[in-house]
Amino acid sequence: MKRVVYFLPLIVLAILGGFFLKGFDLNPRELAKMLEGQPVPEFDLKPIKGRDDGFKNTDLLGEVSLVNIFGSWCVSCQVEHPFLMEIKKKGLVPIHGIDWRERNPDDGPRWLAKHGDPYTRVGDDPESKAAIAFGVSGAPESFLVDKQGIVRYKHVGPVTPDVWQKVLWPLIQELRKR
Amino acid sequence: MTRLALLLAALLATLPAFAVEPNEILKDPALEHRARDVGQALRCVVCQNQSIDDSNAELARDMRILVRERILKGDSDRQVLDYMVSRYGDFVLLDPPFKATTYALWFGAPLIVLLGLGGVLLFYRRRNADGAEIPDEPAPLSAEEKRRLEALFKEDGR
Fold it and tell me: Hey, is the C-beta of B122 within 8 angstroms of any chain A C-beta?
């Protein structure tokens, strides 16, 4: 009994240490993925300048697709952009864009003209209406949606070849079979 | 008069600075007051350590506007908070809800304090029980010592 009491401080420290170690692996940007397993929220966005297709939640029914939150102001979006272009070129999965919080309605279209446009549909979201409905806290974020319009996976940060290989592509193939 | 004005200005300067901008404020003061209550309870998901009322992040501003829109539509404060939780999870509430997943959060700190107090109590009780710190009663004189003592007294001629 005495022994145990002597080691108590060490034990408590070890438990706390365990919590802190776990903390190293947590990404504070990655909030609860509330929407996974839920239908996509209702939204109805106007098209961005120079395009005539708006983007609303019912557009997501019938096929597996990726919804990507981006903005011309967002640096990490430039990181993932070439890879999104590659996905489009190979026709792997349709990607829809939500152009989030552009200061100026020309910014998004200009950015897409410069870097290429990987999107099937693009909605303009200047007041974060869709962004908040999706529970977005930063850009880029991507949501994988199944044929029934249910969100199956949320990815925070750039879509890298690594995430694509390990998570997104296998999941897309899985969802297409259903 | 200037003094009074200065005093008032100084007092006003101690009020918390809100990020809520004049053009966001609702005309009805009662509704605005409710929007402030809700805004104070919601965490800005960009800065993560401020309420949306205190944050200058653009997303926080959009959230403040959304809170006001929902209140104008007739949502109760609870309904607005629930909507945000359904999008962002419990993390968006600055005051975490009391449920199984947050027990560690609620009980952790008090538990550690209790453990510490328990340790201190134990330490003192032990110390007194052992009597280690209290000097022993001096041993009674042996027969030999008594004899020598008496011899010494005699020498003094008392």
Answer: yes
This prediction's pTM: 0.79
What DSSP assignment string belongs to chain A? -HHHHHHHHHHHHHHHHHHHHHHHH--TT----TTTTSBPPP-EEEEPTT----EEGGGGTTS-EEEEEE-TT-HHHHHHHHHHHHHHHHT-S-EEEEEE--SSTTHHHHHHHHH----S-EEEETTSHHHHHTT--SS-EEEEE-TTSBEEEEEES---HHHIIIIIHHHHHHHHH-
Residue A45 contacts residue A57 (beta carbons within 8 Å): no
* Burial class of residue B73 in the structure, from the number of CB atoms within 10 Å of its CB (0-12 exposed, 13-18 middle, 19+ buried): exposed
A39–chain B Cβ distance below 8 A for any pair: no
Amino acid at B143: A
CA B136 to chain A, closest CA, distance in angstroms equals 25
Let me know: does A117 contact A107? Beta carbons within 8 Å.
no
Q: How far apart are CA A84 and CA A86, in angstroms?
A: 5
Helix (H, G, I), strand (E, B) or coil at B42: strand
B88–A32 CB contact, under 8 Å = yes
Contact A98, A67 (CB under 8 A): yes
pLDDT score of A107 more than 60? yes
Share of chain A above pLDDT 70, in %: 99
Q: Which one of A10, A34, A151 makes the best mutation probe of the B interface by having the most chain B beta carbons within 10 Å?
A: A34
